[in-house]
Amino acid sequence: MTQLDLARWLRTNRRHFNNQVHVAIMSTIYARSKYINEIKIGRLEATYSADGSRILRYSIDFVHKGLNLHKFLSAPELLVLQNKVDALIATWDERYDKAVALGQVYSQKAKAEQASIDATEALQNIQNILLTGIENALPIDWDQLKDTRRFDKQLTLPPPPVPPQAVELPEFVPPIVTFWQKLFGKSAEIIAAARQEHESLLDNIRQRNEQAVRAHSEKCSEQERQAHSARTNYDYEKKSFHDQQYQNNAKIDDLAAAVSRGDEEAIIEQMTLVLDRSDYHDLFEKELTIEYQPSEETLLVEYQLPSPDKMPQIKAVRFVKATGELRESYLSERDKAANFDSACFQICLRTLHEIFAADVANNVSKVLFNGHTQYIDKATGRDVDACIMSILVEREAFSNIDLLRIDPKACFKSLKGVSASTLSALAPVAPILKLNKHDERFIDARDTIGDIDEATNLAAMDWEDFEHLVRGLFEKEFARRGGEVKITQSSSDGGVDAVAFDPDPITGGKIVIQAKRYTKTVGVSAVRDLYGTMQHESASRGILVTTVDFGPDAYKFSAGKPITLLTGANLLHLLDKHGIKAKIDIREARKVLNLRDYGH
User: Fold this and answer.
1) What is the pTM (predicted TM-score) of this model?
2) On the CB side of 323, how many CA atoms lie within 13 Å of its CA?
3) Separation of alpha carbons 530 and 533, rounded Å
4) Which is it for the CA torsion 502, 504, 509, 514, positive or negative?
5) pLDDT in tens, 480-536
6) What are 299's strand-pairing partners?
7) Which residues pair with 543 in a beta bridge?
8) What is the Cα 414 distance to its own chain's centre?
9) CB burial class (10 A; 0-12, 13-18, 19+) of residue 345?
C-alpha cells in the first residue's frame, strides 16, 4: 500500500472515524513491517448501533500475498484493534522471515547444484572432444547452404470503391384540379406548372446521378492507379528477392563446382567452412588460417588452441549453510595439465578427421596441422604465442586408424607428430612446415586514423597517409567477421594499394582495394586498371576509393562486374559509421597541393 493509497483511504473514512487514529494504525504497519509491499490492507469498517448513535465494533481485513494468508480483525475499541494489528504484523513478519530465509537456502542450494552440473559437463566435454567430432564429421551438403525461403509477402490491393446507388426518376403524377379551377379555365395552367416542376426535379436527379457516376469513375481510376503501383512494387520486391536468392545460390553452386575442379581458393573456403562449423561447446574461441598447395595436394592449417589459463578450472560447487556462501573446489594442477594435453591432442586429431571426411573430391592428400596457444609467461609477464605441436599426416595413413579406440597422445606420436612430452609445459616446437601468409609486397601499416579529426581535409592528405587511412578503415570494416587487410608498397603503375582477405566462405575471398586521393573526377582508366589488377591477382572483388566522384564512363564500365566504386561522400559515411569525423574540401585541397598549375 503506497502513501497515495493511504491518503485515499483516509479521505474515504474520515467521515466516520477519528483521523488521528487512522494515521496511528497505518503508521504502525508502515513502521513495524519489513514487508509492507506483501500486505494488502482493507478498509476500516464500523458497525453502528440500531439508532446509529454509537459504534459497536471496528473491523479491518488483511491479506499477506507472500504467505497466502487472510485475516479479519475486529474489536470494540480502536486501541484494542490497533494492538491486534500490531500482533498480527509481528507474527506475519516473523513467519515471512523464515520463508525468505528458507527460500534463499533452496535457491543457493539449487545454484550450487547447477554450478556443479555445469562444471562436470564442461570437464566431460573435454573428454569427448574427439568422439563428438567423429559423430558429427560429414561432408558439406551444398544444398543445405542454399536459400530455400519462399517469398511470403502478400499482395495487398486497395478495395474497389462502392458503386453509387442511382436515384430512380419518379413518374409524373398530375395534380388534382378543383371544380372552381376547372370552371375558371385554370386546369391547363396548373398541369403545365406541375409538369415543369416535375421536369426540373428530374433534371436535378439526373445531374446528381451523373455526378455520382463521375465521382465513382474517378475513385475507380485512383483505385486502379494505386493497385497498379502496388502490383508494380510487389513484382519488383518479388523479383529482387528471387534474383538475390538465385545469385546467392549460384555462388554456392559455383563454389561446389570449383571444389570439384580442385580450385585452390575454393578448397580453402570449403575447409574454412568445415572447421568453422565444428562445435566445441564454447571451450575456446576458434581462430585458424588455412592454405592449400595444389602441387602437393597439401592443406596447411594454423590452429589457435585453447589457452591453458582459460581452460575449465572448477571441479564442483557446494553450498555452505552456515555462511550462506557458494564454495568452489578446483582441479589440481595435475588434472588441469592432463585436461589441457588431452584437449589439444583431441582437437588436432578431430581437425584432421573433419578435413579428410569433408574432402569427397580427394583434393587433399596431406594435412599439416600447426597448433598454437597463447599464455602469459610467468617469468616476464608478457603474452606469448607459441607453436606447441606440429604434424604432417597423409590421408592413407590416417584412414587406417580407428579413432574410437585410440589414445589421442599415443596416436599423435605414432603419426610422427612433434611436441614436448607434455603440452602443458608450453615448450615451443619448430613447425614441420610454415604457412606463407605474407606477400613480399606487404609493408607495415601506419595508424593514420588516430590523427584524423573534423578539421582534417582528406583531399589534402599526403597520398601515402591516405592509403594507410583507407587500409585502417577497411580493417575496421572487415574485423567483425575475422578479415585482414594488408597494405602494399607504393607503385606508380596503378597497382594494388591494399589487399583484404575476407574469410566468409560464400561472399568473401581476396579483395583488391585501391585508393585515389584525387581533386578531379576519376575517369574510366582508373577503373580499367583496377579490373586488370583484379584479374592478375585472382581477386574475387575490387574496391576503388576516392575523395571525389567517378565519371559516367567509369560507372558504365563497372556495371555487371564485381567492382565497388566509393565516392568521397561514401568514404565520409563509412568513416562516420566507425566514429571517425573528417571533411573533404576540393577547392581547399587544390590550393594546399598547388594543383591549379598541374591540373591533376
Assistant:
1) 0.54
2) 6
3) 5
4) negative
5) 666 677 767 555 444 557 887 766 555 667 788 888 888 889 999 999 988 988 887
6) 292, 367
7) 513, 564
8) 45
9) buried
